[in-house]
Amino acid sequence: METPQRPAGGCSCRNTNCVEGPLTRLFQGLGRLVAACPWPFLLVPLLLSAGLGSGFLRLRQLQANDIEEQFTPTQGPAKAERDFVRRHFPTNDSARFSAPRLPTEGAYAALIAVATAGGSVLSDAALGEVRRLDAAVRALDGYEELCARRGAACAAANPLLPLLGGGAAASSLSFPLSNGTFLGAALGGVRTGGGGRLLAARAVRLVYHLREDGPAAAPGRRWLQGFVRLFPDVLRAYNFTAIEVTYFTSLSRQEEFEGNSKSVIPLFSITYFLTITFSIVSCLRLSCIRNNIWLASCGVVSAGLAVLSSFGLMLYCGVPFVITVANAPFLILGVGVDDMFIMIACWEKSARGKRKLDTKARMAETYAEAAVSVTITTLTDVLAFFIGTWTAFPSVRSFCLYTGTAFIFCYIYTMTFFGAILVLNHKREGKNRHWLTCMPVKTAEDNTVKSCLYNACCIGSCSGQSSESDNEHPMNKFFERYYGPFFTNKWVKLVVVLLYGAYLAGSIYGCTQVREGIDLRNLAHDDSYVVPYYDDDDKYFSEYGPRVMVVITESVEYWNKSVRMAIQNCMQSLEGISYIDKNLSESWLTVYTKLAESASMDLNNKDRFINNLLILFRYFPDFEWDINKTQDKIEASRFFIQTVNVTSAVDEKNLLNQLRDTAKQCNIPLMVYHPAFIYYDQYLVIVQNTIQNVLTAAGAMLVVSLLLIPNPFCCLWVTFAIASVIVGVAGFMTFWRVNLDSISMINLVICIGFSVDFSAHISYAFVSNEKPSANERAVEALHLLGYPVLQGAVSTILGVVVLAAAKTYIFRTFFKIMFLVILFGAVHGLVFIPVFLTFFGNFGRSPHNTVSEDVLKPQTRFREDEDCPQRT
Fold first, then answer.
1. Cα separation of 329 and 272, whole Å?
2. Among 36-45, 282-291, 647-656, which is the least confidently predicted range?
């Protein structure tokens, strides 16, 4: 069969075949070259992969799984605020430790003891066990030498214990303030009586801080690591009955996160097994000669080589390897197999016709049809990933760089390595050799009736005769005879329109309910010991949130009464926020003013104001760490406000925005800070970054579609599909309890590329075929492409389905959103778009209506093939 000619004509408003034609001719030449010299195209990718794969030797040193560094915005305001606090308010963990004044979370081990049987931890039995627990931790080797200190003693793990140390009853205490001591973060599930009198509490928190300054930092880290190993044995040894204890350390979140990558390694082997099995079954033939098992296996190997080469190259270039990158091989494998299906299908199609072409001509035709299709989808996917690098989150940037580069290598190896495999396999078939043993296969020379199994294994086909003619795949017939006519029925089309309306309404509603930000507990393994601790923390200690620093960042005239009034007004504005309890604020200036009034000190004189601060420090020594003063001025100072009822990501976002907006409106240069704001900053950019990347990538996809798909009407449907699928994925991921965070943002960018894959060629097949009615054209488009779309969806889902079994949020989230992307993309390609296209009749129809069907079919990306249906 001669290679079909493309429709004549240059670019026009209805036929934009400006790039596709030259690209086709280029790939025809490449196909002939691969056919003429297959061995270099086979060996060079193998050697290149071996060389670049050595970059994995740098994997350990380039692993970058620091949670703060990778999952918070690079230029987050809280990081600059933390640097300011560190410079102006240095800490002294060896003598004057104060947890609220730390610029970081600190180094600590935390315990939550919950009373059993619904009791109170303030009961004699429970409180006795709490004291035994406290003594057991303090007795651990090395604690006394490494603990953070107030004076000569280790800082108390809970302010309640010193209050009860003198034999005072818990009922004599008040909550949340008792004798000037804040107990809100120490007791949870509290029940109070009149005047705030403490009656009962369900839980108590013990926090053992270690020194971070000086040479104690490294030993402190080792002590915490040992604590995690030894503490379960301590709990078993004491066998507490009145309390249940959960535990956590400042290292736990990071160490659990780093361990996640190990949990996914066994899934790689399962994925490759599933993919190879799926590929072999898809390409299986009852012919010992024309069986495509080796082609299927080599297609999977080609995708594996792409992973090896791309990751090795990125590691050589020094790109950090983040745990999110571990998702990439699953996706690349699915996409690489889809490209293999296209190549095999086009190769098989080139053998049909009245006369056989030689190898070079067949490869030229194969590359002319397949390579342009693979180029379109690869280019859209790679663009989506590289656009995804324009983000404030380093974890997203690393994933997009690794995956985008892997897609390029996957494309190159499909065109070279796999093309060479096609040629060598064809030579084996031409010499009538067995697919497994490569031994010559005899043909039936007598009329003896043999079994189908014998004929298939020993002769070449089940019938014992040469099988050169190919019948159409049954699934293609199904789409032509049953599926297409069913969906072009007017009542079915009405139902489809209603279903799409329901889909769109549900998606839009879901988008309005999207939860932003990554929950830090989700960075740990499902079975981790930190999960029960987080559960207890949420259940019993959610009433009182972060104790926020309010920092005056410049030198102001505190001795000026009007300045003091302005500071007081600013504090009142901050305390007026619904998330702030004004009764729990702490201000050195307010205390100093009251002290001056009682002692008749004049605070309106600069020298007296600064000199008399020593009196304040004598009575309230902690305030010395809240004032950064030189000899003649105060460079900076800070106050504290207490947040309440910050129980969700929405509350965290609103709190941060309201605090910063209120601080900006003050006449005094103010800054608000807490170490948790490092993570809250993601709320400021996550939506903006996602919308920016999605819109930019969608625009790039539209341009690529206009250049490479020679019909502008198709591009309108591509744009529609991109928008519709993205809205669907963003909406329905809310119903699946997936937050909009840096992890899901990755998948939304991926969504764009796959939306193009599923939509572009269905719509072009519709407008380019010559059937007289819209319904017939829709049926013909489904006949040509229905099964390949379905096959591509299945193969891609198979590449990521094992991640559903992962016990880690990151990998499960990747599966969930990829599943939604593929599901909605396939439904659009197989249901919504074919039905909607029938409503537009001849609008956008290709002007080349006289072109034969054989000429039109190569214009589409997919071909009907009974052996290996292809991906979109």
1. 10
2. 282-291
Residue whose C-alpha is closest to residue 695's, from 397, 399, 384, 404 = 384
User: 632 and 497 in contact (C-beta within 8 Å)?
Assistant: no
For residues 369 and 862, give the distance between their C-alpha atoms in angstroms, rounded to a whole number: 9
Q: Which residue has the tokens 């309404």?
A: 505
Which residue type occupies 128? G
**Residue 429: which of 346, 370, 347 has the closest Cα?**
347
The alpha-carbon radius of gyration of the chain (Å, integer) is 34
Query: If DSSP codes are grouped into helix, strand and coil, which group holds residue 808?
Result: strand
3 state SS for 559-602: CCHHHHHHHHHHHHHHHCCCCEEEEEEECHHHHHHHHHHHHCCC
What mean pLDDT do residues 258-271 have? 74
- 2 pLDDT tier (thresholds 50, 70, 90): very low
pLDDT in tens, 240-263: 999 999 999 999 988 888 777 677
**Contact indicator for 188, 205 with CB cutoff of 8 Å:** yes
What residues form DSSP beta bridges with 2?
none
Q: Please give the structure tokens belonging to residue 471.
A: 């019948």
Scored b (16 or more CB within 10 A) or e, 620-632 reads beebebbbbeeee
Please state the length of the chain: 872
Residue tagged 């309106």 (tokens): 604
* pLDDT value of position 166: 59
Nearest to 73 by CA among 677, 758, 726, 488: 677
- Can you tell me the mean pLDDT for 316-328? 87
Which helix or strand (DSSP H or E) is residue 207 part of?
strand 198-210
Residue for token digits 């079909």?
4
Q: What is the pLDDT of residue 698?
A: 77
DSSP element (H, E) containing 715: helix 712-735
- Percent of the chain past pLDDT 70, that is, above it, reads 85
Give the DSSP H/E element, type plus range, for residue 192. Answer: strand 187-192
Contact call for residues 583 and 174 (beta carbons, < 8 A): no
pLDDT at residue 352 in the model: 61
Give tens-digit pLDDT for 759-811: 766 776 777 677 788 888 888 888 877 777 787 788 788 878 888 888 888 88
Contacts of 571 (CB under 8 A, 6+ apart): 550, 585, 587, 639, 641
- Cite the DSSP H helix spans in 600-633: 606-611, 613-619
Backbone angles phi, psi at 871, to 5 degrees: -85, 170
Residue carrying the six token digits 């996409």: 335
Q: What mean pLDDT, rounded, does the chain reach?
A: 82
pLDDT tens digits, 572-608: 999 999 999 999 999 999 999 999 988 888 889 898 9
Taking CA atoms, 471 is separated from 480, 564, 779, in Å, by 15, 90, 20
φ, ψ at 294 (rounded to 5°): -65, -35
Tell me how far apart the alpha carbons of residues 771 and 838 are, in angstroms, rounded to a whole number: 12
**Closest by Cα among 186, 184, 204, 222 to 107:** 222
pLDDT over 70 at 633, yes or no: yes
pLDDT value at 463 more than 80: no
**H, E, C per residue of 318-387:** CCCECHHHHHHHHHHHHHHHHHHHHHHHHHHHHCCCCCCCCHHHHHHHHHHHHHHHHHHHHHHHHHHHHH
Q: Copy the structure tokens of residue 794.
A: 């299945």
Angle of the 359-387 helix axis to the 742-768 helix axis, nearest 10: 140
DSSP 14: S
- Burial environment of residue 119 by CB neighbours within 10 A (0 to 12, 13 to 18, 19 or more): middle
φ/ψ (deg, to 5) at 424: -65, -35
Q: Tell me, what DSSP letter sits at residue 392?
A: S
Stated pTM of the model: 0.78
